[in-house]
Amino acid sequence: MHVYEKAMLLVWAMLYRNLAPKADLAFQLWIQQRDQRRADHPQITIKWPRPSCNGDMLSLYSLNHPVCIGVAYPPSTEPISVACVLSSRIANAEVPSHLNYGATPPSTLDLGTRKREHTAMSKYILLINGPNLNLLGTREPAVYGSTTLPDVVSAAKSQGERLGLTVHDFQSNHEGAIIDCIHEARQTAQFIIINPGGLTHTSVALRDALAGVAIPFLEVHISNVHAREDFRHRSFLSDKAVGVICGLGVFGYTAAIDFVAQKLEAGNTML
Ligand SMILES: O=C1C[C@@](O)(C(=O)O)C[C@@H](O)[C@@H]1O
């Protein structure tokens, strides 16, 4: 990479940090020329100040060219590396179709065809699973079945892809991490599908987070919570949700994605 390009990238990265609608991510950037032999594809290391949503999309722009499009895995405060495509090579860059932009670039940028891709790929939905759902498949199989969470997520992503949605997933056993994830999605996600697990019945903070970002959401439960203990009959979220699906097993996620695809297709987010 030429010194000039490197300098412009750094300047733009600093500007971007201030301009980006997702500025709350406040990521810090620096360039590491990890592989000198592939100087046209350097790695950019991105240090996240706090755990990010799994699959958060990142995009950086140098002058008026996108230089880097990547995806952050997994939730981590460790520096991660993403493949970077230099501006001079962007015309030939292969950008996987499932990639989405995590932040909207300034409108003055001339992104040509990429701008259209951005619009076409903008149906971004967030699938959140709360505490203990990482144990799906082994946890109380008589209640929750034998399908694992990775199976649920990968089926949701494939279904989303077929229906023109980019599904990002996040699971945490920690209320605060889920709330951070919801906050971070407020500039990007058009819909949230959430199985809040036990937080359904306890969390005012989760209710406030969902109301605070004003992203329409569906509440999903694998089991029929109304046929179970009394304390599961109350939800702090249901009256804020577009709808509630419960008792359909993991098919509830499939039904939710179908519903969201139809609603977004119709341009109706039901807010
Ligand atoms: O963790 C869960 C899972 C659950 O949300 C469900 O998917 O059926 C139901 C909740 O009551 C429970 O705490």
In short:
The chain is α/β, with parallel strands linked by helices and 271 residues long. It has helices at 3-19, 113-120, 141-144, 149-162, 175-184, 204-213, 251-265; strands spanning 28-32, 43-47, 56-62, 65-72, 80-83, 124-129, 166-171, 191-195, 217-221, 243-246.
General description of the model:
This protein has 271 residues and is an alpha/beta fold. The chain has two domains: 3-103, no CATH class; 124-265, 3-Layer(aba) Sandwich (Rossmann fold). It has helices spanning 3-19, 113-120, 141-144, 149-162, 175-184, 204-213, 251-265, and strands at residues 28-32, 43-47, 56-62, 65-72, 80-83, 124-129, 166-171, 191-195, 217-221, 243-246. The strands form three sheets. It has a five-stranded parallel β-sheet with strand order 7-6-8-9-10, covered by helices on one side. Strands 1-2-5 form a three-stranded antiparallel β-sheet, with helices on one face. Strands 3-4 form a two-stranded antiparallel ribbon. Helix 5 (175-184) runs parallel beside helix 6. The N and C termini lie far apart (47 Å). 37% of the residues are buried. The structure holds 1,3,4-trihydroxy-5-OXO-cyclohexanecarboxylic acid.
CATH topological fold name of the largest domain: Rossmann fold
Number of helices: 7
Counting copies of identical and different chains, the oligomeric state is single chain
Give the amount of beta strand, in percent: 15-25%
Mean pLDDT: 69
Could you say which small molecules are bound to this protein? 1,3,4-trihydroxy-5-OXO-cyclohexanecarboxylic acid
CATH superfamily of the largest domain: Dehydroquinase, class II
Shape: globular
Question: Biggest β-sheet, characterized?
Answer: 5 strands, parallel
| Cα gyration radius (Å) | 20 Å
Number of domains: 2
Question: How are the strands ordered across the major sheet?
Answer: 7-6-8-9-10
From the 3D coordinates, which CATH architecture of the largest domain would you assign?
3-Layer(aba) Sandwich
Output the CATH class name of the largest domain: Alpha Beta
Helix and strand composition category: alpha/beta
The H/E string reads HEEEEEHEHHEHEHEEH
Report the helical percentage.
Answer: 25-40%
